[in-house]
Amino acid sequence: MDRKFDFKKMLLLVSPLLAFAVLLVPYSWANQAFIVDWLGCGCPKMDELGNMITPDFNANDFTSLFWGLISLCVTISAVLLSRKISKNKWWLRIVYVVGMLAVSLLISYQFIQMMMWN
Asked: What residue ranges do the domains of the chain occupy?
């Protein structure tokens, strides 16, 4: 019984990372369907003199902001779920939260690179 409980506890502790899997397809679709049309791609724009104009805020910035916010939510969830770990093992709580932060930032970075408009 104890092993089964530990397995369920482990699944619960890793569950915030499912947000990335759930949001990947809808955000990719929304990004292609209307976010790029609304904010413009990250492509450099030229004025009539041939000087490059950098856009102020574009779809690439919005994508970075979105996945950064998801990483923040995953980290906050990890902090709240760290209560499930024994109070005697405070160091394990810290390792868990830092690990979840690192993994969520790595996943966010990969998604941002995958959805970058050049």
From this structure: 19-114
